[in-house]
From TrEMBL:
GO molecular function: ATP binding; creatine kinase activity; protein arginine kinase activity
Function of the molecule: Catalyzes the specific phosphorylation of arginine residues in a large number of proteins. Is part of the bacterial stress response system. Protein arginine phosphorylation has a physiologically important role and is involved in the regulation of many critical cellular processes, such as protein homeostasis, motility, competence, and stringent and stress responses, by regulating gene expression and protein activity.
Entry GO CC: extracellular space
Name this polypeptide is given: Protein-arginine kinase
Reactions listed under catalytic activity: L-arginyl-[protein] + ATP = N(omega)-phospho-L-arginyl-[protein] + ADP + H(+)
Keywords: Allosteric enzyme, ATP-binding, Kinase, Nucleotide-binding, Transferase
EC number: 2.7.14.1
Binding site for ATP: 27-31, 92, 126, 177-181, 208-213
InterPro entries reported for this sequence: Arg_Kinase, ATP-guanido_PTrfase, ATP-guanido_PTrfase_cat, Gln_synth/guanido_kin_cat_dom
Record flagged with keyword Flavoprotein: no
Motif (RDXXRA motif of the pArg binding pocket involved in allosteric regulation): 338-343
Species annotation: Fervidibacillus albus
């Protein structure tokens, strides 16, 4: 099996689609953590035991092909080089922890890349389902079906009183982590985010950057997810997050309307300048590229910039990351060379769309 088909294109199929509130909600993700009863957690496992877990879970994953989930391919971390691993990280298909630290790790990927199953990461099994827009319930339904396929073949680590047992105590219970990725430029510009984020932290939700825990927000993109799974049902977790996200979506929309009403010409000028820089710059670093792409995405949503699709901008957010730049260039690059090539990728991508201002 070759990983090439999963890394030759920056955008997964789910990035190209549209879902509810997709002007603001980029994606919905459900991740389920599970462990096998007869094995210690990955962090304590010997090389021999973790290799046994890998073989057992890859064998169980073969059953997925008998269900209506599409086709799957699987890879072990040891057969992938460092660039290939990082490309999968940049596409949100595996975690940085799996790429960097897993002994005898593996990943099972669906052909449309909406399903990613990580083996021997922090837990023995992590089932991840991602869909465009605000589709947490749909993602949960899909993840639950996949979980049922594995549970029918495996003996999970489970306690009758507290639920599923996991390496991290914040995942004990349901083992579910629900998250949404949001584009919130207007709330950033109007400086309304801090009180919003403070309020949602008080109800057990966490705010992180585009690549989850440990990552910094850039390009006005934030991930919001539940922090605790113990003592709450899956439905309660999803209902709470859905309600909060819907409220944030409404506040972002109101902030956009106010910006247009109060600072219309300045907003148009700001967005148009960012579009011009992306269209003609010969060097641009990743942070500025993310910010300018965010500006143009806002311009598309406000009908200030026409002729470019949101899916193109989603793809550019991934294409301009360091590993993908080196993948496209076909060689390792230093920071300055990446900045030059990043600008080239953006220029050519925008030019190919025959954009109308």
């Amino acid at each position: 099996m070759s990983v090439h088909r999963f890394i030759e294109q920056a955008a997964s199929d789910w990035m190209k689609g549209e879902g509810p509130n997709s002007d603001i909600v980029i994606s919905s993700r459900i991740r389920i953590a599970r462990n096998l009863h007869e094995y210690v957690f990955p962090i304590r496992a010997t090389h021999e035991k973790s290799n046994m877990v890998l073989r057992e879970l890859l064998q169980a994953a073969r059953e997925l092909d008998t269900h209506d989930f599409g086709n799957f391919e699987w890879f072990t971390m040891r057969e992938l080089n460092e660039l290939e691993k990082q490309l999968l990280v940049e596409k949100h298909l595996i975690s940085q922890q799996l790429a960097n630290h897993s002994r005898n790790g593996g990943v099972v990927l669906s052909d449309n890349e909406s399903i990613s199953i990580m083996i021997n990461e922090e837990d023995h099994l992590r089932i991840q389902c991602m869909l465009p827009g605000l589709q947490l319930l749909e993602a949960w339904d899909l993840a639950g079906q996949i979980d049922d396929v594995f549970e029918s073949q495996l003996d999970y680590a489970y306690d009758e009183k507290i639920g599923y047992l996991t390496s991290c105590t914040t995942n004990v219970g349901t083992g579910i982590r629900a998250s949404v990725m949001l584009h919130l430029p207007a709330l950033v510009i109007t400086e309304q985010l801090n009180p919003i984020f403070f309020a949602i932290n008080q109800i057990g939700l966490a705010v992180r950057g585009m690549y989850g825990e440990g990552s910094e927000p850039f390009g006005n993109i934030f991930q919001i997810s539940n922090q605790i799974t113990l003592g709450k049902s899956e439905e309660e977790i999803i209902h709470t997050l859905n309600g909060v996200v819907n409220e944030i979506v409404e506040q972002e929309r109101m902030a956009r309307k106010r910006l247009l009403a109060e600072s219309g010409i300045r907003m148009i000028n700001h967005i148009s300048r960012s579009f011009g820089i992306l269209s003609f710059a010969t060097m641009i670093d990743s942070k500025e590229a993310a910010q300018r792409i965010s500006d143009v995405r806002l311009g598309v949503d406000l009908d200030i910039i026409r002729g470019v699709s949101t899916s193109t901008l989603n793809e550019l957010m991934v294409m301009t990351q360091p590993a993908f730049i080196q993948q496209f260039a076909g060689k390792e690059m230093n920071t300055e060379d990446r900045d030059v090539y990043r600008a080239k990728i953006i220029r050519e991508s925008l030019a190919s769309r025959n954009l109308e201002k």
